[in-house]
Amino acid sequence: MQPYWSTHFMLPGQEHAHAQAIGEALDHAREGVAMLAGCDPFEVVFTSGGTESNNLAILGSLAQTASGHLLVSSMEHESVLAAVDSLADGPWEIETIPADSNGLVDPDQVASLLRPNTRLVAVQAANPVTGTIQSIREIADLVHNRGVHFHCDATQVFGKIPFDVSQMRADSMALSGHKFYGPKGSGALYVRRGLQVAPIAYGEPREMGLRPGAENVPGCIGIGAAARLASKCVVDAEANLRQLRDRFISGLRCVIDPEPVIVCEDVSALPNTVAVELPLEANLVQKSARELVFATALSSAPADEMTRSLQAIGKQPDQIRRTARFSFGWTTSRDQIDRSVDLIAEAWDASK
Amino acid sequence: MQPYWSTHFMLPGQEHAHAQAIGEALDHAREGVAMLAGCDPFEVVFTSGGTESNNLAILGSLAQTASGHLLVSSMEHESVLAAVDSLADGPWEIETIPADSNGLVDPDQVASLLRPNTRLVAVQAANPVTGTIQSIREIADLVHNRGVHFHCDATQVFGKIPFDVSQMRADSMALSGHKFYGPKGSGALYVRRGLQVAPIAYGEPREMGLRPGAENVPGCIGIGAAARLASKCVVDAEANLRQLRDRFISGLRCVIDPEPVIVCEDVSALPNTVAVELPLEANLVQKSARELVFATALSSAPADEMTRSLQAIGKQPDQIRRTARFSFGWTTSRDQIDRSVDLIAEAWDASK
Q1: A78 Cβ partners below 8 Å, 6+ apart?
Q2: Distance between CA B253 and CA A276 in Å, rounded?
Q3: Are residues A187 and A253 in the same domain?
Q4: B281 at the A interface (CB within 8 A)?
C-alpha cells in the first residue's frame, strides 16, 4: 500500500498515464479479491467495509422493488439486521429465521418460510461469537432455486476456512478487509452477474456505478493483496488454528473446575473462535488478567453483538455475563495459548 | 498511521486496555479535525470521504422531515447534486441556485429564493474546477437566520485558504482527507451541535450513532494528523500557492498568442487552482506533454465534474474542450511551474 499514499496518489479516471496506472493497480487488486471470493473481477465492488457491503447488498437490491417478504437469520450481524429493520416502516414483511441452540439455521426451515413474495434471504457464513458455520450451500440452493436473492454475510470466514461463491452460490456476499489481515476501512461486495443492485450513496459514478466517491486506492490495494495471501494460505491456516483452538479448550478443561461450557461445541465452527461459558463473570477475568485480550458482552440495551448472538441461541443473562469470546490469529503461538490458559486459571483461583 | 495497521490493530469499544488506547487515539484525531474545522470535537463525525460526508449531511438531515423545498447551487459537486436528486421522486421541490459567469452565487439571490418550507440550502465553499470561492459567511447568515439548515461542501478549501465554521457559520460542513494530504478513504462531517441528523447506513452504532461500521482507525489517525498540519501551515501555504499560480498565469500569457483566457479570473479564487481556456484542444496538450498531469473535460453525457462546472458558468462545448484545469500543491516548485509553461508552449508550437 505504501507507494499509493505518496508517489502514486492519483485517482483513476483521467486520461493521463499516471491515472491509468492507478486504474491498472486497482484492476489487479480486484482480481485478488475475485480469486478469494471465487468470482469474476467485474463482480467485485470495493466498499469501505463489511457494514457498507451488507447495506449495499440489502438496500441496493431492494431499491427497485416495491414491497415483499424478507427473511433474515437471528444470528446476523447488526449491519444486516439494522439494514433490514430500516425498511420496517415501509411495505415490507420482515421475518426472522430462528437458530437452534448451536446457532444453526436449518435449511429446510428456510425453505418452509419462503413465500411467493419473498425478495431476499440473508444468512451469514459464520458467527463471530459462537463460531457456528452455516450450511450455506444447502440454503443458497434452496433459495436460489426459488428465484429469490440470497445474501451471505461472509465477513468472518475468509482466511479461516476455504469458502467461495463458486461453491456456495450466494447471489451477493460481503467481505471485510480487516477480518483477513487487510486494512481497516476496506471491504468488498460480490454481486452476481445479472443481479440488479442500485447504489445506496450518490455522487460520481465509480465501481461500476454501485459506489460513488474517490476510491480508497491504498485500501483497495491492501484488501487485494490480503485476499491473495488468504487464498494461498487458508488451508494451512485452518489446520493450525484448529490445533490452537483444541489446545486452548483442553487447557481450560484441565485448569477450571467445574469444567467450562464450550458454546456451540457440537457443530462445525470457525477454527479461530471459541466462546466459553466460565463459572465466573467474564469481566472479572478481564480485570484480573489485563494481559489477555478477549471480548465480553458489554451491553444488553442496546444489545451488543455478543449479547445478541448468545440470546439468539437461548442463553440467559447470567450465562451471557459469564461468557468470554476468544479468537486466535495466523501469528498466535502455542506459547500464547498456554499463557492464556494460565492467566484464566489464575483469575479463576483468585476469584474462588 | 503506521502502528495502527500493525501493533495497534484493535477497535475501540471493548473494556480491555488496548481497545481503550485506540479510543484515546481516535479522540486525539477528532480534536485535530475539530481544530481545522473550528468546532468542538463532538461535532466531528469520521466518514469514508467527502462523498459520504455530503450524503450524510443532506440525506441524514432530511430523513426526519416529510417534505419541503431544497436549494442547491449549480456549482456543487456531484455527491451533493446526486444526493439531492435522489429525492426528486419524493415530496420535495428541488431548485437550483444559478451562478454568474465567474461561478459566483449571489447571497441576495439565495435569500430571495428561500421559501417558508425551505429545509436545506447547499453551497460549496470553493469550486475545484474554476477555483471560485463563494461568500459563505453572507449566505450562511442569511439562511441560518431564517432557521434553515445550511450545508457547505468545504472539501476544496482546507490546506489552501483559512476557513472554519466559527467564521463561516454553516450548520454542516463536509471535509475530505485526501484533499489536504490526509489519506484517501478518510473524510469528516461537521454537524453543528443540535442539528438533527440520522445515519444513512445501518449497523453497530459508532460515531455518535451517525456512522456504523468498524472505524477506519489508521484513516482517522491520518486525517487527524493532516488536519493539524493544515491548520498550522495554511497561511504560508496560501501565500506560496498564490505566487505559483500568478507565475504560471504570467508564463502562459508570455508564451501563447492569442493570450489564453483564465477562467473566473475576476473573483476570489483558490490559490492552487487555475482553469485555462487555451487556443487549442486541451487533450492535444495532454497527448503531446505526457510529463504534465492536469485535468480535462472527459465526458459531456454523463457530464463529468469539469464539464458541469464549466457549463454552469455558461461555457460552450467548444470552450470546454479547450479548457485545462491545473492545480498545484504544497511541494510544487517554481521550476516545476516554469517547466509546465515550457511544455504547454511546446505543445502549442507543435499544434500550430
Answers
A1: A305, A308, B202, B203, B204, B212
A2: 75
A3: no
A4: no
For the segment B212-261, what is each residue's pLDDT rounded down to a tens digit?
999 999 999 999 999 999 999 999 999 999 999 999 999 999 999 999 99
Flag whether residue A124 sits within 8 Å of chain B, measured between CB atoms: no
Mind telling me how many Å the CA of B42 is from chain A's nearest CA? 21
Helix (H, G, I), strand (E, B) or coil at B269: strand
Pairing of strands A295-296, A44-47: unpaired
- Give the CATH number, domain containing residue A180: 3.40.640.10
> B57 with B81: CB under 8 angstroms?
no
ipTM summary value: 0.95
CB B95 within 8 A of CB B85: no
Residue contact A52–B82, C-beta within 8 A: no
A167 alpha carbon, distance to own chain's centre: 17
Residue B291: the pLDDT is 87
All residues at 6 or more sequence positions from B100 whose CB lies less than 8 Å from its CB, including other chains: B106, B313
Q: In whole angstroms, how large is the CA radius of gyration of chain A?
A: 21
Same domain, A96 and A191: yes
Query: What whole-number distance in Å separates Cα of residue B294 and Cα of residue A129?
Result: 50
The answer on B252 and B223 residing in a single domain is no
Cis peptide before A260 (omega within 30 of 0): no
